[in-house]
Specification:
- By secondary structure, this protein is an alpha+beta fold.
- The protein has two domains: 306 residues, Bira Bifunctional Protein, Domain 2 (BirA Bifunctional Protein, domain 2, 2-Layer Sandwich), CATH 3.30.930; 113 residues, Anticodon-binding domain (Rossmann fold, 3-Layer(aba) Sandwich).
- Helices cover 33% and strands 30% of the residues.
- It has 13 helices and 23 strands.
- The chain binds one RNA strand through α10.
Amino acid sequence: MRLSQNITKTLKNAPADEQAINAKLLIRAGFIHKEMAGAYSYLPLGLQVIENIKTVVREEMNALGASELLMTSLQAKDSWVLSGRWSDDLVDIWFKSQLKTGAEIGFGWSHEEPIMMMAKSLVKSYRDLPISVYQFQTKFRNELRAKSGVMRGREFIMKDMYAFSRSADELSEFYERTKDAYLRVYDRIGLGDNTFVTFASGGSFTQFSHEFQTVTDSGEDTIYLDRSKRLAVNEEVYSDEILAQLGMKKDHLEKVKAAEVGNIFNFGPIKGEQMDVYFSDQSGQRQPVYLSSYGIGISRLMGVIAEHFNDQNGLVWPINIAPAKVYLIAIGDSKAVSGADKLYNILTARGVAVIYDDRDVRPGEKFSDADLMGIPWRVVVSEQFIENGLYEIKSRLNNKLQQLNESNLIKLVEATTAKSNLHNKEIGKD
RNA sequence: CGGGGAUUGGCGCAGUUGGCUAGCGCGCCGCGUUUGGGACGCGGAGGCCGGAGGUUCGAGUCCUCUAUCCCCGACCA
């Protein structure tokens, strides 16, 4: 994109009404716009990050055999009454409204009940199972207190997947495969080293659910982490008995703050029984459908990454989710500008996302914005080098400067795609 | 929901014990000089001080109510 066409302008000062680092940086760099507490719009650069995260998640979910769909945000009361979860006493984060007729409706904070209603009409036979579906959806949760920028909002983007299985074993097999897929997701978006499978409350259905917790001081959860086992226990279920049950040793654990970036649940047959969702098995017997559900907070991930990868100059996006790979700047006369135009066209034609800073401002301002926006590679086309066919390329990660010709530059930029884990190690945090 | 803090041009802030046309920096517009780390000069535009009510000759400054935002706690499939 040409920066002159961007609706966003960077800010030198963060708004005073934001305390969270993720919100300060994302607003200053023009990635998000605050509408109200706990509700942020995604501006072009921020949306690109969201889409990049989605792409990684989508690839991993598709690889599991799940298919994408999109459900409604407006939800009928009936399905939730059926499960008992329409009650505000049980679920205290409901947003509700009503139709002109007076009929009550809810705004989806989860889609477990509606998807079960859907399954009820679509899944009839063991031949229809197992099956899994997922979506990227805006969820609404009427939190008493929104906080921490995009990390805990009242409206946010979530990937939720639902798997229907025929038995506990079948469910468990999918559950384990999904756990691995989740770990691949976090790895690919740069959080792999700091994200841990964590035992957490299973609610009323199973003893445990599994959370994926990213270690960060900005998180609101406390976990007890065994780094060598790469496993943790959430404080909410932490006790000597639980540790014994899980075979974890107390003296191997460290107590750390973490942000929940995923949560997966095993409902077993309970939800099916509760909501009357049955299938016919091979012998024609009625059996309850086994349900498991799998969530990843997409917009929260953007916040966690912003919290984790930044320095005094601004954001430092992992390569796989950066809104662009290259921040292109021309310095000097028309020769430099036409050189930059040409490189912009070449890279764009190759599918490399480029932010071309074609604004009529001084170089220093462009350098600052390149840093603030956290674009992995800064490429400068200047009079002094273009005559020899060289471009200057600088890494946002380590500030290393190189002069490369066109083909080497392309090689470098394209080679760094899909190496998010490298990024994570190099920045040396945690 | 309990406690604490805040609200003055787009952003960050200052506004003495109530006093005259509400200031500053950034940003924005115009002209000129600049051009490898957020340049400089000159000239402009833009706010009725979150909202409502009150006290007063006079309120951004005092009082009451209210809205919103931030933080701590509680809550958190």
